[in-house]
């Protein structure tokens, strides 16, 4: 059993059988800069020490990073820990995050180097792990050109509306398979926008390929899964060397990643050569251009970043998780559902489904979509930013190489920002003094803000509006007992509600008729 924990410049006592040490000490700092506040440092040390005593299986910093809501509020706006020589800062305040990551974005926009997933498998070429530099800026320009604003997204509104209508039809046919329908629809929208590709109803090869590649991404970047991430020099050992089986695995996963990048890209080129390519992210970037090798690399990998990142973003799916959370909220809060439906009925009537031209006329539906993003946070912790150069922020010395992680979950549940933060209450975004728009937080900060935020926002809104117009969602009755779903999101980079059951039925005969109409491009 580990002894008492101190916050002095020494590691926690090592527990028998564990090869991990954690230091709660601070880095040396320039003269005149203030240390981290002692009581906050002490609180974090005590929290880590408690987990440490639970044994090496549980003692991982990833436990805390997987459950951001477990970080005690008394840790303050900036929390620090050092793990195996790596400084990690967790930001628990949105204003501090904006001061550091937005206003000092040139210094806070790099990414950590991941030897297995990033270097050996090759995910360092996608936007999420791409080092900050010229290539990164070119990727962002491509995103901005095609989906970088609400106005740019107007081109893709018909795609969103048609595929969401098809989602309603799938839910009508098999309501018990809600989760699968949400995933399929997200893939259909993203592939249509990114590559002009129409997905197959079952076992689509491009969706299956992306799912396989991103599953491998999750495994290749899992904390502590591969020794090479702790000893980067192992990258250079030959494949036949004893214990180097990770290199064989990396080579296999690299092939999957290359296929995910190349096959959809070649599909677009073939369609363009035949003169039948619909407008898409890739076709817009290729049209009328002769590309150099570097330019083609940027188009291939930036389109793959959109395709893989939006379809299955970092161990999960942003849009999928948000829309699944919508149905959980509608199940648990029937009064909210009725208010939103009453607004739709008053503004649109019952003769058609909502579309994007109605958005400005449906303020309660807009507020409900915002509350979905805030209440069940899709990305509890943002992907770490890596500090490119030494910095002193508000008296705190932050050395080059420090990982800075915004605690998105806490920011969106901070009682200083949101009244009664655990309550699902769309009204908080209405009236003369609306609370902070969660979209200014949940998509990240600075130059690493999610480049597909307008696409994700549009997908969530049209799903909210159409689903409310078409269906009544309620708790199911099993054996004469009403079943209340549990609010318990999964841990991880992307958070999903636990699987739950609910009743999904057309609101009326007219709603059934609208759902069954055949949407066409």
From TrEMBL:
| UniProt-listed Pfam families | p450
Where heme is bound, by residue? 450
From the UniProt record, give the pathway where this protein acts.
Secondary metabolite biosynthesis
User: Which CDD domains does this UniProt record tie to the protein?
Assistant: CYP64-like
Q: Which cofactor does it need?
A: heme
**Molecular function in Gene Ontology:** heme binding; iron ion binding; monooxygenase activity; oxidoreductase activity, acting on paired donors, with incorporation or reduction of molecular oxygen
User: Which keywords label this protein?
Assistant: Heme, Iron, Metal-binding, Monooxygenase, Oxidoreductase
On whether Transport is a keyword of this UniProt record, the answer is no
Region of interest (Disordered), ranges: 1-38
State whether keyword Heme applies: yes
Checking PROSITE patterns in the record gives: CYTOCHROME_P450
Family under the similarity heading: Belongs to the cytochrome P450 family.
PANTHER family tied to this protein: P450, PUTATIVE (EUROFUNG)-RELATED, P450, PUTATIVE (EUROFUNG)-RELATED-RELATED
Protein's UniProt name:
Cytochrome P450
Question: Which organism encodes this protein?
Answer: Boletus reticuloceps
